[in-house]
Protein backbone atom coordinates (compact mmCIF):
# COMPACT_ATOMS: atom_id res chain seq x y z
CA UNK A 1 0.00 0.00 0.00
CA UNK A 2 1.40 3.40 -1.00
CA UNK A 3 0.86 6.61 0.92
CA UNK A 4 0.96 10.05 -0.67
CA UNK A 5 2.36 13.08 1.09
CA UNK A 6 1.64 15.69 -1.59
CA UNK A 7 1.37 18.64 0.76
CA UNK A 8 4.69 17.90 2.45
CA UNK A 9 6.34 17.37 -0.94
CA UNK A 10 4.98 20.67 -2.23
CA UNK A 11 6.20 22.50 0.88
CA UNK A 12 9.67 21.00 0.54
CA UNK A 13 9.98 22.10 -3.07
CA UNK A 14 8.79 25.57 -2.08
CA UNK A 15 11.60 25.69 0.48
CA UNK A 16 14.04 24.65 -2.23
CA UNK A 17 12.82 27.55 -4.38
CA UNK A 18 13.21 30.01 -1.50
CA UNK A 19 16.61 28.76 -0.22
CA UNK A 20 18.09 28.30 -3.74
CA UNK A 21 20.27 25.38 -2.58
CA UNK A 22 22.25 23.86 -5.49
CA UNK A 23 20.88 26.20 -8.15
CA UNK A 24 22.36 26.09 -11.66
CA UNK A 25 20.12 28.59 -13.47
CA UNK A 26 19.98 32.38 -13.17
CA UNK A 27 16.92 34.15 -14.56
CA UNK A 28 16.75 37.93 -14.95
CA UNK A 29 13.10 39.04 -15.08
CA UNK A 30 11.80 42.53 -15.86
CA UNK A 31 13.32 45.64 -17.37
CA UNK A 32 15.61 48.29 -15.95
CA UNK A 33 15.37 49.63 -13.33
CA UNK A 34 13.05 46.84 -12.11
CA UNK A 35 15.07 43.70 -12.82
CA UNK A 36 15.18 40.86 -10.31
CA UNK A 37 17.54 37.88 -10.30
CA UNK A 38 16.10 34.41 -9.60
CA UNK A 39 18.19 31.32 -8.79
CA UNK A 40 16.55 28.11 -9.96
CA UNK A 41 17.22 24.48 -10.92
CA UNK A 42 17.36 23.26 -14.52
CA UNK A 43 15.97 19.79 -13.80
CA UNK A 44 12.82 21.20 -12.15
CA UNK A 45 12.32 23.78 -14.92
CA UNK A 46 12.63 21.07 -17.60
CA UNK A 47 10.12 18.77 -15.93
CA UNK A 48 7.51 21.47 -15.38
CA UNK A 49 7.80 23.63 -18.52
CA UNK A 50 8.04 22.65 -22.17
CA UNK A 51 9.61 26.03 -22.89
CA UNK A 52 12.56 25.37 -20.59
CA UNK A 53 12.78 21.75 -21.74
CA UNK A 54 13.23 22.91 -25.34
CA UNK A 55 15.69 25.60 -24.29
CA UNK A 56 18.01 23.15 -22.57
CA UNK A 57 17.68 20.33 -25.12
CA UNK A 58 18.43 22.67 -28.04
CA UNK A 59 21.32 24.24 -26.16
CA UNK A 60 20.34 27.78 -27.15
CA UNK A 61 20.47 28.95 -23.57
CA UNK A 62 23.42 31.17 -22.55
CA UNK A 63 25.94 29.78 -20.04
CA UNK A 64 28.37 31.71 -17.83
CA UNK A 65 30.65 30.41 -15.06
CA UNK A 66 28.84 27.08 -15.02
CA UNK A 67 25.39 28.68 -14.68
CA UNK A 68 22.64 28.79 -17.30
CA UNK A 69 21.42 32.34 -17.96
CA UNK A 70 17.91 33.36 -19.01
CA UNK A 71 16.76 36.90 -19.61
CA UNK A 72 13.01 37.63 -19.57
CA UNK A 73 12.64 41.42 -19.89
CA UNK A 74 9.06 41.02 -21.15
CA UNK A 75 7.82 39.56 -17.83
CA UNK A 76 7.68 41.72 -14.70
CA UNK A 77 9.63 40.15 -11.85
CA UNK A 78 6.63 39.95 -9.48
CA UNK A 79 4.77 37.94 -12.13
CA UNK A 80 7.76 35.69 -12.80
CA UNK A 81 7.86 34.98 -9.08
CA UNK A 82 4.27 33.70 -9.32
CA UNK A 83 5.24 31.46 -12.25
CA UNK A 84 8.31 30.00 -10.54
CA UNK A 85 6.41 29.30 -7.34
CA UNK A 86 3.85 27.37 -9.38
CA UNK A 87 6.60 25.46 -11.20
CA UNK A 88 8.23 24.44 -7.94
CA UNK A 89 5.27 23.66 -5.69
CA UNK A 90 2.06 23.92 -7.73
CA UNK A 91 0.79 26.91 -5.74
CA UNK A 92 -0.65 30.04 -7.32
CA UNK A 93 -2.51 32.97 -5.76
CA UNK A 94 -4.21 35.42 -8.09
CA UNK A 95 -6.54 37.42 -5.85
CA UNK A 96 -3.84 39.90 -4.82
CA UNK A 97 -2.89 40.73 -8.42
CA UNK A 98 -4.38 43.60 -10.40
CA UNK A 99 -6.64 42.57 -13.27
CA UNK A 100 -4.21 43.76 -15.93
CA UNK A 101 -1.37 41.88 -14.22
CA UNK A 102 -3.42 38.67 -14.35
CA UNK A 103 -3.80 39.13 -18.10
CA UNK A 104 -0.05 39.77 -18.45
CA UNK A 105 0.59 36.66 -16.37
CA UNK A 106 -1.57 34.63 -18.75
CA UNK A 107 0.49 35.87 -21.71
CA UNK A 108 3.71 34.92 -19.90
CA UNK A 109 2.62 31.38 -19.01
CA UNK A 110 1.49 30.90 -22.61
CA UNK A 111 5.02 31.72 -23.76
CA UNK A 112 6.42 29.27 -21.21
CA UNK A 113 3.81 26.69 -22.30
CA UNK A 114 2.54 25.83 -18.81
CA UNK A 115 -0.81 24.37 -19.83
CA UNK A 116 -2.29 23.88 -16.35
CA UNK A 117 -1.73 27.50 -15.46
CA UNK A 118 -3.11 28.71 -18.81
CA UNK A 119 -6.41 26.95 -18.07
CA UNK A 120 -6.47 28.05 -14.43
CA UNK A 121 -5.92 31.75 -15.16
CA UNK A 122 -8.54 31.80 -17.89
CA UNK A 123 -11.03 30.16 -15.55
CA UNK A 124 -10.19 32.67 -12.81
CA UNK A 125 -10.70 35.65 -15.13
CA UNK A 126 -14.02 34.32 -16.38
CA UNK A 127 -15.37 33.62 -12.89
CA UNK A 128 -13.94 36.55 -10.95
CA UNK A 129 -13.09 39.38 -13.34
CA UNK A 130 -16.15 39.61 -15.57
CA UNK A 131 -16.52 43.36 -15.09
CA UNK A 132 -12.87 43.97 -16.00
CA UNK A 133 -13.26 41.89 -19.15
CA UNK A 134 -16.45 43.71 -20.01
CA UNK A 135 -14.96 47.18 -19.56
CA UNK A 136 -11.83 46.33 -21.54
CA UNK A 137 -13.31 44.13 -24.25
CA UNK A 138 -11.48 45.71 -27.18
CA UNK A 139 -8.04 45.41 -25.58
CA UNK A 140 -8.76 41.91 -24.26
CA UNK A 141 -9.98 40.71 -27.66
CA UNK A 142 -6.84 42.03 -29.33
CA UNK A 143 -4.70 40.06 -26.88
CA UNK A 144 -6.74 36.86 -27.07
CA UNK A 145 -6.74 36.97 -30.87
CA UNK A 146 -2.94 36.68 -30.84
CA UNK A 147 -2.88 33.59 -28.59
CA UNK A 148 -4.46 30.39 -29.90
CA UNK A 149 -4.40 28.73 -26.48
CA UNK A 150 -6.78 31.26 -24.90
CA UNK A 151 -9.82 29.43 -26.26
CA UNK A 152 -11.89 29.54 -23.05
CA UNK A 153 -11.47 33.29 -22.73
CA UNK A 154 -12.09 33.80 -26.45
CA UNK A 155 -15.34 31.83 -26.37
CA UNK A 156 -16.46 33.63 -23.21
CA UNK A 157 -15.89 37.08 -24.71
CA UNK A 158 -17.54 36.16 -28.01
CA UNK A 159 -20.59 34.81 -26.20
CA UNK A 160 -20.86 37.98 -24.11
CA UNK A 161 -20.60 40.20 -27.17
CA UNK A 162 -23.03 38.16 -29.25
CA UNK A 163 -25.58 38.08 -26.41
CA UNK A 164 -25.23 41.79 -25.68
CA UNK A 165 -23.46 43.53 -28.61
CA UNK A 166 -23.97 46.99 -27.13
CA UNK A 167 -21.20 46.43 -24.60
CA UNK A 168 -18.77 46.59 -27.51
CA UNK A 169 -20.56 48.25 -30.43
CA UNK A 170 -21.80 51.19 -28.31
CA UNK A 171 -18.50 51.68 -26.49
CA UNK A 172 -16.04 54.45 -27.24
CA UNK A 173 -13.38 51.84 -28.00
CA UNK A 174 -15.38 50.12 -30.75
CA UNK A 175 -13.76 52.27 -33.44
CA UNK A 176 -10.34 51.06 -32.25
CA UNK A 177 -11.16 47.45 -33.08
CA UNK A 178 -8.81 45.89 -35.62
CA UNK A 179 -10.36 44.94 -38.97
CA UNK A 180 -9.81 41.14 -38.66
CA UNK A 181 -11.57 41.09 -35.30
CA UNK A 182 -14.53 43.09 -36.58
CA UNK A 183 -14.73 40.76 -39.54
CA UNK A 184 -14.88 37.72 -37.23
CA UNK A 185 -17.70 39.29 -35.24
CA UNK A 186 -19.78 40.21 -38.28
CA UNK A 187 -19.52 36.64 -39.53
CA UNK A 188 -21.36 35.39 -36.45
CA UNK A 189 -24.90 34.21 -37.09
CA UNK A 190 -25.74 34.63 -33.40
CA UNK A 191 -24.73 38.30 -33.17
CA UNK A 192 -27.83 39.68 -31.45
CA UNK A 193 -28.26 42.86 -33.52
CA UNK A 194 -30.74 44.06 -36.06
CA UNK A 195 -29.03 44.15 -39.43
CA UNK A 196 -29.49 47.88 -39.92
CA UNK A 197 -27.62 48.42 -36.63
CA UNK A 198 -24.83 46.15 -37.86
CA UNK A 199 -24.57 48.19 -41.07
CA UNK A 200 -24.56 51.56 -39.26
CA UNK A 201 -21.95 50.32 -36.78
CA UNK A 202 -19.75 49.20 -39.65
CA UNK A 203 -20.06 52.62 -41.27
CA UNK A 204 -19.21 54.36 -37.98
CA UNK A 205 -16.10 52.20 -37.65
CA UNK A 206 -15.13 52.81 -41.29
CA UNK A 207 -15.46 56.59 -41.13
CA UNK A 208 -13.43 56.68 -37.92
CA UNK A 209 -10.56 54.77 -39.57
CA UNK A 210 -10.32 57.34 -42.36
CA UNK A 211 -11.38 60.35 -40.26
CA UNK A 212 -14.08 61.12 -42.82
CA UNK A 213 -17.40 62.92 -42.83
CA UNK A 214 -20.36 60.52 -42.81
CA UNK A 215 -22.19 62.46 -45.50
CA UNK A 216 -21.45 60.74 -48.85
CA UNK A 217 -22.49 63.83 -50.82
CA UNK A 218 -19.35 65.57 -49.50
CA UNK A 219 -16.89 62.88 -50.60
CA UNK A 220 -14.48 63.25 -53.48
CA UNK A 221 -13.37 60.38 -55.71
CA UNK A 222 -10.34 59.53 -53.57
CA UNK A 223 -12.50 59.29 -50.45
CA UNK A 224 -15.02 57.07 -52.21
CA UNK A 225 -12.18 54.76 -53.28
CA UNK A 226 -10.82 54.62 -49.72
CA UNK A 227 -14.20 53.62 -48.29
CA UNK A 228 -14.76 51.03 -51.00
CA UNK A 229 -11.44 49.38 -50.24
CA UNK A 230 -12.02 49.44 -46.50
CA UNK A 231 -15.49 47.92 -46.81
CA UNK A 232 -14.59 45.35 -49.46
CA UNK A 233 -14.20 42.36 -47.10
CA UNK A 234 -17.18 43.38 -44.96
CA UNK A 235 -19.88 43.77 -47.61
CA UNK A 236 -20.53 40.00 -47.97
CA UNK A 237 -21.00 39.80 -44.19
CA UNK A 238 -23.93 42.23 -44.08
CA UNK A 239 -27.34 40.54 -44.42
CA UNK A 240 -28.76 43.35 -46.58
CA UNK A 241 -31.92 41.41 -47.40
CA UNK A 242 -32.89 41.51 -43.71
CA UNK A 243 -32.95 45.32 -43.66
CA UNK A 244 -36.43 46.82 -43.78
CA UNK A 245 -37.35 48.78 -46.97
CA UNK A 246 -37.50 52.17 -45.21
CA UNK A 247 -34.10 51.66 -43.58
CA UNK A 248 -32.70 50.40 -46.87
CA UNK A 249 -33.82 53.51 -48.72
CA UNK A 250 -32.63 56.08 -46.16
CA UNK A 251 -29.64 54.33 -44.59
CA UNK A 252 -28.22 52.03 -47.27
CA UNK A 253 -29.19 53.30 -50.70
CA UNK A 254 -27.63 56.72 -50.07
CA UNK A 255 -24.27 54.90 -49.95
CA UNK A 256 -24.84 53.29 -53.34
CA UNK A 257 -21.62 54.76 -54.74
CA UNK A 258 -19.51 52.61 -52.42
CA UNK A 259 -21.52 49.41 -52.82
CA UNK A 260 -21.28 46.92 -55.70
CA UNK A 261 -23.71 48.01 -58.41
CA UNK A 262 -25.07 44.50 -58.95
CA UNK A 263 -25.88 44.32 -55.22
CA UNK A 264 -27.73 47.65 -55.35
CA UNK A 265 -29.67 46.47 -58.44
CA UNK A 266 -30.65 43.18 -56.77
CA UNK A 267 -31.71 44.88 -53.56
CA UNK A 268 -33.83 47.43 -55.39
CA UNK A 269 -35.49 44.63 -57.32
CA UNK A 270 -36.06 42.69 -54.10
CA UNK A 271 -37.78 45.65 -52.41
CA UNK A 272 -39.80 46.84 -55.41
CA UNK A 273 -40.92 43.72 -57.28
CA UNK A 274 -43.54 41.70 -55.35
CA UNK A 275 -42.67 38.13 -54.27
CA UNK A 276 -39.24 38.15 -55.85
CA UNK A 277 -36.48 36.12 -54.25
CA UNK A 278 -32.80 37.00 -53.98
CA UNK A 279 -30.92 35.96 -57.10
CA UNK A 280 -27.78 34.91 -55.30
CA UNK A 281 -27.17 32.74 -52.27
CA UNK A 282 -27.15 34.84 -49.12
CA UNK A 283 -26.13 34.28 -45.54
CA UNK A 284 -28.96 33.19 -43.21
CA UNK A 285 -30.66 35.76 -41.03
CA UNK A 286 -28.98 36.30 -37.70
CA UNK A 287 -30.47 34.34 -34.82
CA UNK A 288 -31.70 37.26 -32.76
CA UNK A 289 -32.51 36.51 -29.17
CA UNK A 290 -36.13 37.59 -28.96
CA UNK A 291 -36.83 35.57 -25.82
CA UNK A 292 -36.81 38.74 -23.72
CA UNK A 293 -38.40 41.36 -25.90
CA UNK A 294 -39.22 43.22 -22.72
CA UNK A 295 -42.41 45.30 -22.65
CA UNK A 296 -40.79 48.44 -21.30
CA UNK A 297 -39.98 52.03 -22.19
CA UNK A 298 -37.30 52.25 -19.49
CA UNK A 299 -35.14 49.15 -19.82
CA UNK A 300 -33.97 46.78 -22.52
CA UNK A 301 -33.56 43.02 -22.69
CA UNK A 302 -29.93 43.20 -21.53
CA UNK A 303 -31.10 44.43 -18.10
CA UNK A 304 -33.02 41.21 -17.47
CA UNK A 305 -30.09 38.80 -16.94
CA UNK A 306 -28.66 41.32 -14.47
CA UNK A 307 -31.92 41.50 -12.47
CA UNK A 308 -32.22 37.69 -12.46
CA UNK A 309 -28.65 37.33 -11.18
CA UNK A 310 -29.33 39.82 -8.37
CA UNK A 311 -32.58 38.07 -7.42
CA UNK A 312 -30.67 34.83 -6.95
CA UNK A 313 -27.82 36.67 -5.17
CA UNK A 314 -25.30 35.63 -7.78
CA UNK A 315 -22.55 37.49 -9.60
CA UNK A 316 -23.91 40.08 -12.04
CA UNK A 317 -22.98 37.94 -15.05
CA UNK A 318 -24.35 34.66 -13.66
CA UNK A 319 -27.27 34.60 -16.12
CA UNK A 320 -27.39 35.51 -19.79
CA UNK A 321 -30.29 35.78 -22.22
CA UNK A 322 -30.25 32.03 -22.76
CA UNK A 323 -30.69 30.76 -19.21
CA UNK A 324 -32.80 33.26 -17.27
CA UNK A 325 -35.06 31.30 -14.86
CA UNK A 326 -37.70 34.06 -14.58
CA UNK A 327 -40.31 35.72 -16.73
CA UNK A 328 -40.94 39.46 -16.27
CA UNK A 329 -44.53 40.52 -16.91
CA UNK A 330 -45.41 44.21 -17.04
CA UNK A 331 -48.16 44.96 -14.49
CA UNK A 332 -48.07 48.71 -14.24
CA UNK A 333 -46.76 51.67 -16.25
CA UNK A 334 -47.31 55.16 -14.85
CA UNK A 335 -47.59 56.65 -18.35
CA UNK A 336 -50.41 54.25 -19.12
CA UNK A 337 -52.01 53.79 -15.70
CA UNK A 338 -51.33 57.13 -14.00
CA UNK A 339 -49.34 57.90 -10.86
CA UNK A 340 -52.13 57.30 -8.34
CA UNK A 341 -51.58 54.89 -5.46
CA UNK A 342 -54.96 53.34 -6.21
CA UNK A 343 -53.86 52.41 -9.72
CA UNK A 344 -50.57 50.99 -8.44
CA UNK A 345 -52.29 48.69 -5.94
CA UNK A 346 -55.03 47.74 -8.37
CA UNK A 347 -52.45 46.44 -10.84
CA UNK A 348 -49.80 45.10 -8.46
CA UNK A 349 -51.55 43.62 -5.41
CA UNK A 350 -51.89 39.83 -5.21
CA UNK A 351 -49.15 39.34 -7.81
CA UNK A 352 -46.38 38.03 -5.58
CA UNK A 353 -42.77 39.04 -6.27
CA UNK A 354 -42.26 42.22 -8.29
CA UNK A 355 -39.50 44.52 -9.44
CA UNK A 356 -40.14 48.24 -9.92
CA UNK A 357 -38.09 50.61 -12.08
CA UNK A 358 -38.20 54.42 -12.25
CA UNK A 359 -36.32 57.00 -14.36
CA UNK A 360 -35.55 60.16 -12.39
CA UNK A 361 -36.82 63.24 -14.16
CA UNK A 362 -34.26 65.27 -16.11
CA UNK A 363 -31.45 62.72 -15.76
CA UNK A 364 -30.10 59.44 -17.11
CA UNK A 365 -30.51 57.87 -13.66
CA UNK A 366 -32.61 54.74 -13.25
CA UNK A 367 -33.54 53.46 -9.79
CA UNK A 368 -35.61 50.53 -8.63
CA UNK A 369 -36.11 47.70 -6.21
CA UNK A 370 -37.07 44.06 -5.84
CA UNK A 371 -39.89 42.98 -3.53
CA UNK A 372 -39.86 39.15 -3.20
CA UNK A 373 -43.15 39.19 -1.26
CA UNK A 374 -46.16 41.25 -2.43
CA UNK A 375 -47.79 44.69 -2.10
CA UNK A 376 -50.91 43.51 -0.27
CA UNK A 377 -52.02 44.96 3.07
CA UNK A 378 -52.55 48.38 4.64
CA UNK A 379 -50.10 49.93 7.12
CA UNK A 380 -48.04 46.73 7.25
CA UNK A 381 -44.25 46.23 7.51
CA UNK A 382 -43.06 43.04 5.83
CA UNK A 383 -39.87 41.18 6.65
CA UNK A 384 -37.48 39.66 4.11
CA UNK A 385 -33.69 39.35 3.77
CA UNK A 386 -33.95 39.07 -0.03
CA UNK A 387 -35.16 42.50 -1.15
CA UNK A 388 -32.78 44.98 -2.76
CA UNK A 389 -32.52 48.44 -4.29
CA UNK A 390 -30.48 49.34 -7.37
CA UNK A 391 -29.29 52.46 -9.13
CA UNK A 392 -27.95 53.01 -12.66
CA UNK A 393 -26.34 56.43 -12.98
CA UNK A 394 -26.64 55.92 -16.74
CA UNK A 395 -29.48 53.66 -17.85
CA UNK A 396 -27.64 52.83 -21.10
CA UNK A 397 -24.48 51.68 -19.31
CA UNK A 398 -24.90 48.54 -17.24
CA UNK A 399 -21.47 49.01 -15.70
CA UNK A 400 -22.80 52.04 -13.76
CA UNK A 401 -25.12 49.81 -11.72
CA UNK A 402 -24.97 49.82 -7.92
CA UNK A 403 -26.80 47.22 -5.85
CA UNK A 404 -27.83 47.22 -2.19
CA UNK A 405 -29.48 44.30 -0.38
CA UNK A 406 -31.59 45.16 2.65
CA UNK A 407 -29.71 45.97 5.88
CA UNK A 408 -32.71 45.62 8.18
CA UNK A 409 -34.98 42.76 7.03
CA UNK A 410 -37.74 43.90 9.41
CA UNK A 411 -37.95 47.23 7.54
CA UNK A 412 -37.67 45.79 4.05
CA UNK A 413 -41.15 46.47 2.62
CA UNK A 414 -43.99 48.73 3.72
CA UNK A 415 -47.49 48.46 2.27
CA UNK A 416 -50.17 51.15 2.61
CA UNK A 417 -53.16 52.00 0.42
CA UNK A 418 -52.47 55.71 -0.06
CA UNK A 419 -49.00 55.48 -1.62
CA UNK A 420 -47.05 53.56 -4.23
CA UNK A 421 -44.06 51.26 -3.59
CA UNK A 422 -42.09 51.75 -0.37
CA UNK A 423 -38.88 49.92 0.51
CA UNK A 424 -37.35 50.90 3.83
CA UNK A 425 -38.02 54.62 3.91
CA UNK A 426 -37.71 55.19 0.17
CA UNK A 427 -41.29 55.76 -0.91
CA UNK A 428 -43.53 57.01 -3.69
CA UNK A 429 -46.47 59.24 -2.80
CA UNK A 430 -49.45 58.82 -5.10
CA UNK A 431 -48.80 62.14 -6.84
CA UNK A 432 -45.33 61.29 -8.25
CA UNK A 433 -43.54 62.70 -5.21
CA UNK A 434 -40.65 60.43 -4.28
CA UNK A 435 -38.74 60.75 -1.01
CA UNK A 436 -35.81 58.82 0.45
CA UNK A 437 -35.55 59.47 4.19
CA UNK A 438 -32.81 56.87 4.67
CA UNK A 439 -29.90 59.34 4.85
CA UNK A 440 -28.10 57.13 7.38
CA UNK A 441 -28.33 53.99 5.19
CA UNK A 442 -30.16 52.20 7.99
CA UNK A 443 -32.67 50.16 6.00
CA UNK A 444 -30.70 49.80 2.75
CA UNK A 445 -27.10 50.70 1.82
CA UNK A 446 -26.42 54.11 0.29
CA UNK A 447 -26.11 53.40 -3.44
CA UNK A 448 -26.57 56.96 -4.71
CA UNK A 449 -30.37 57.26 -4.73
CA UNK A 450 -31.23 60.91 -3.85
CA UNK A 451 -32.06 61.22 -0.16
CA UNK A 452 -33.80 63.85 1.95
CA UNK A 453 -30.54 65.19 3.39
CA UNK A 454 -29.69 66.80 0.02
CA UNK A 455 -32.88 66.52 -2.07
CA UNK A 456 -36.18 66.81 -0.15
CA UNK A 457 -38.08 65.01 -2.89
CA UNK A 458 -37.84 64.23 -6.60
CA UNK A 459 -40.03 63.24 -9.52
CA UNK A 460 -39.70 60.49 -12.09
CA UNK A 461 -40.51 60.59 -15.79
CA UNK A 462 -42.13 57.16 -15.58
CA UNK A 463 -42.03 54.07 -13.47
CA UNK A 464 -42.92 50.47 -14.20
CA UNK A 465 -43.64 47.39 -12.12
CA UNK A 466 -43.00 43.84 -13.38
CA UNK A 467 -44.25 40.61 -11.91
CA UNK A 468 -41.34 38.19 -11.44
CA UNK A 469 -42.50 34.69 -12.31
CA UNK A 470 -40.36 31.61 -11.75
CA UNK A 471 -40.04 29.71 -15.02
CA UNK A 472 -40.56 26.05 -14.17
CA UNK A 473 -38.89 24.94 -17.40
CA UNK A 474 -35.56 26.38 -16.29
CA UNK A 475 -33.36 25.78 -13.32
Summarize the structure in words.
With 475 residues, the chain is an alpha+beta fold. The protein has helices at 6-19, 42-48, 50-57, 77-89, 99-111, 115-128, 130-135, 137-145, 151-163, 166-169, 179-186, 195-210, 221-231, 245-252, 261-272, 304-311, 334-337, 341-348; strands at 25-29, 36-40, 62-64, 67-72, 326-333, 354-360, 366-371, 380-382, 388-392, 401-405, 413-415, 419-423, 426-429, 433-436, 460-470. It has three domains: 6-144, Potassium Channel Kv1.1, Chain A, CATH 3.30.710.10; 169-272, Serine Threonine Protein Phosphatase 5, Tetratricopeptide repeat (Alpha Horseshoe); 301-470, no CATH class. It is built from 18 helices and 15 strands. The two termini are 44 Å apart.
Short note summarizing the structure:
The chain has helices spanning 6-19, 42-48, 50-57, 77-89, 99-111, 115-128, 130-135, 137-145, 151-163, 166-169, 179-186, 195-210, 221-231, 245-252, 261-272, 304-311, 334-337, 341-348; strands at 25-29, 36-40, 62-64, 67-72, 326-333, 354-360, 366-371, 380-382, 388-392, 401-405, 413-415, 419-423, 426-429, 433-436, 460-470.
Radius of gyration: 29 Å
Q: Looking at the structure, what is the overall shape?
A: flat
Mean pLDDT equals 89
| Range of helix content | 25-40%
Q: How many angstroms does the end-to-end distance come to?
A: 44 Å
Summed up, the helix count is: 18
Strand order of the largest sheet: 5-15-6-7-9-10
Largest pleated sheet: 6 strands, antiparallel
What are the defining features of this structure?
Serine Threonine Protein Phosphatase 5, Tetratricopeptide repeat, 475 residues, flat, single chain, 3 domains, alpha+beta, Potassium Channel Kv1.1, Chain A, BTB/POZ_dom, 18 helices, 6-stranded antiparallel beta sheet, 15 strands, 4-stranded mixed beta sheet
Amino acid sequence: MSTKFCVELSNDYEKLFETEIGYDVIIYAGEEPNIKEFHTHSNILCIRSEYFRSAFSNEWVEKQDGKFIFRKPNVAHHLFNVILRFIYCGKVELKDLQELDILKLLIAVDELNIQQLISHIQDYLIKNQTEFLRQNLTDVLEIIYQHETFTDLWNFCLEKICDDPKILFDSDKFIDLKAPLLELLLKRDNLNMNEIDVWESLLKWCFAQENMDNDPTKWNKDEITKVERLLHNFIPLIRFYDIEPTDFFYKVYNYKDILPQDLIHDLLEFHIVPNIKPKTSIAPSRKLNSQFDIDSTLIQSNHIPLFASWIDKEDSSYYNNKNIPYDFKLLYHSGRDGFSAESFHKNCNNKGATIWIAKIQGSTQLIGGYNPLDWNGNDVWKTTPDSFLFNFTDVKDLSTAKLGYVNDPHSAIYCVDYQGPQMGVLLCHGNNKWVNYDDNATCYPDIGIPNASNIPDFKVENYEVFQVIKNKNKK
